[in-house]
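question for whoever is on the cluster today: can someone run the full assembly for these? two chains, 990 residues total. i dont have access anymore since they changed the login thing
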Amino acid sequence: MVTSQPVLLEAVGVPDGHSLQSYRSRGGYAPLERILKEKQPVDVIDLVKASGLRGRGGAGFPTGLKWTFLPKDHPGPIYLCINADESEPGTFNNRILMEDDPHQVIEGIILSAYATRATTAYLYLRYEYPQSWDRLQAAIDEAYAAGLLGKNILGGSFSLDLYLHRGAAAYICGEETGLIESLEGKRAWPRIKPPFPAIEGLFRKPTVVNNIETMACVAQIARRGVDWFRSIGVPADPNNPRDPGSYGPKLYCLSGHVERPGCYEAPLGITARQLIEGQGGGVWKGRKAKAVIPGGISMGLLTEAELDTPLDFAGPGKVGCLGLGTAAVVVIDDTVSIVDFLHNSCRFFAHESCGQCTPCREGTAWSLRMLERIRAGKGRLKDLELLAEIGNTMGMMPGSTICGLADGAAWPIKNAIKKFRGEFEDYIKHSNPNGWMVTDAVRALPVINGH
Amino acid sequence: MPTVIVDGKEIEIGAQERLNCIEAARLAGVEIPHYCWHPGLSVVASCRMCLVETGSRDPATGKVTMVPKLVPGCQTPARDGTVIVTDSQLVKDSRARVEEALLIDHPIDCSICDKAGECLLQDYHFEHGQPERRADINPFHSQRRDVGPTVTLFVDRCIMCTRCVRFTREVSGTSELMVANRGAKEEIDVFPGFPLDNKLSGNVVDLCPVGALGDKDFLYQQRVWFLKREANVCGGCSAGCSIVTEHNQDTVYRLKPRENPHVNKWWICDDGRYGWHHLHDPSRLLAAGRLVSSAAERETVEWPAVVTRIRDDLKSAGRLAVAVSPMLTLEEAWMLCAVARSIDPRAYLAVGHVPTSGTDQSFPGGFTIRAEKCPNRIGVEAIVGLFETDLHRWHNFLDHIRQGQADAAWVTAAYPGSWIDDSTAEPFGKLRSLVVQDLFESPLSRLATWQLPATGFAERTGTWVNVAHRAQTFAAAVRAPAGVWPEGRLLWNMLGRRGLYDPAAVRRQIAESAVSLAVLAGDVPPNGVDLRVNQIASA
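^ ran it for u. tokens below:
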């Protein structure tokens, strides 16, 4: 079993581990005090850059590099937004961090705000996390009382206000510009880029949007140093100049058909098989895995044969998945129909598509409609072609949408049809023996399984 | 000069021009289809119909580097060396897919849709769409609901371009319209109790690229392919918005704004848009009537006889006073003054009644509805100023009549609404001869010796000068009702000119007589000319 000393999760299981006192006893806030006294903001950026930390929210963009995109000598205000709208199906690592160790997150936020010269930070929290709200609010109150937030933090010249903002339960608010629009009180329609948020973000001011887990990593890098962080994970591929490597510990959310689902801390680069067999105790009930979602439903599917793929930022992409995403590993055992899986995936994205761009709004709804029909025994082989076409043309990567939601909707379709085409064809031919070969347009069925 | 390459063709754009790819391609004669983009609204790049391939050409080596994916033309600026490809297979496929996606939930009820014939969804489908339907066929259903007093919404025809929503937020500033729900269940809607009710509401119908927003005034009145279009100017207020009058068989069916960056951009107000119904009012005056001296009756006089008999009547009456209505064109006003002076060389000339209502009403998008409800006060003042040293206004004219300084009067009116009350009209009763030219009977016209019909705004040909001193010429869209000689024709004949009334000839004559109007000598461009520009040059 590949393990590492839990660092991000060190407070889990500690009685009252979420309190300020407990966090301080583990060495928390000491690095903040040292950095605010001795270092300049640019030193913190250099520290994070040197660590090779990549954003934990899904896209894996180097965090230090993102901070340097802010305009130099901007008169302000600069805003820091913390994305805790953790809505990717299968993902719950932010929640563990917010509930069990909120001060670790807050220390990371203060450090990041110091580095980016932001004096206001907003934490955009998912609606469905009431306990996170309570714990975070209590921790923020403690931090204000202890002089860690507010005016002149720890007696220095740096000030920061941190506000909790609760979303209204929409997946699209996890997209960074959707989150910004939502924070501004508008409908969360992602903005067209450029301008990127670093130039024009919240309230049209320079803005950095970072994930909760990224913040926790920043706090740990400040405490344990760059060398510690870089000793964990997968180094950059020397043959690929565009690969910045995958360093540091990662919180993997293991769920689905495993014996021991949960949130596990492991070094980046652990393979899906190692994670399932080791931490997860194997596929449940002695069955075999049919497919595994590598990092949240929008990343696509790994087949059983691809389980030795390392779950780092580069690994899943090599076998046709979208990427590591949120590292939410969902195991699907061999009794599950991939048709049902894809139907569920399409239903999710048809429900969550914000409806701004035509290809995503209509593509997600159309794919759901086709899967409804296939499951109702009216499928045609032609539908697989149409689904594959939707999967290949919808998204930010082919350029047909503004944000990445459509890519996330496209990848499960694309992967499922490509990797499990035989199963789809069998299903269609068996369930629709008289009509599977029809190619003309057919009458639509009412969608009954949609939201 | 910056050079943009559109489908291999090089075009130059102005160094200071900030164009997007749609506008740059248009300069090269290439149309990039688009729904959500509108030059007067913010860019959302959401319909994805304008996706094109772009790249840039290295100025030193001439090597072209393409962007490896499609980009929306509306959002991508065209700079020096920008390469735009609109005819590749990738672009064509992408357009076909967007078109197909938009039609998945569209009811395709073109046969009963008012927009059919001028619908972008229809046009683009023929040009860029899939040859056959691949998506499941939906049973036809239709949902319609009112969103305001002027506009109705056909919910399922909507393609969610959100132009209307942006219009109410950015131009009218009233924000009534919004997007409700999410994904494919999205709908345009208003908040309960806050209908789309503002003075610019009709513009959302023009903005709608499909038949989702319907104009209640025009709904099911006429098929758009029967309509003929004439560039006109709105006579509703002194803003002088450029419009297109859409008509068939001398009946106006609707007015639409005509793009004019100097006047109204792309918009007109609802007062103007629906302000044409008086043209077809059955109570309009339709014949020239002269009071029979023995009784309080009027005999109908044939127009050729009117020309001579009015002249005789006014001449024999004595001192003449003429009110030149600000509803008249420059040409008509000039001819009226000339006729008046030919009858009585010392005729008293004044600018007619200037109707006003409230105060100027401005909108966040820069549009202003003027309080002055006539189109040509500035022009008529200029013309009367050519004949009179002191500029007389309507109240001076009334004083002139009350003090008995005139024996005869000729009052031109042509106002679409009631404009004079009995007490104001009363002193006119003492005149020996009174000519009143108006659209409708009024307290004044009842006193008249000569009751002449006037013409409405879409029936005139000529030039109006708006509040910003911009002169715009236009031709009549519809003919005046049978039996009515427009003012211009009557005056042309009274001046003894031969042939058909020729406003351009009169305009040339006006231009010769005044430096400030000299710019009107040539053809006036469709967007009009600013008369002050010439004054500055001549000063």
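summary bc i know u wont read the tokens: Residues 89-104 of chain B form the longest helix (16 residues). Chain B touches chain A through 39 residues (CB under 8 Å).
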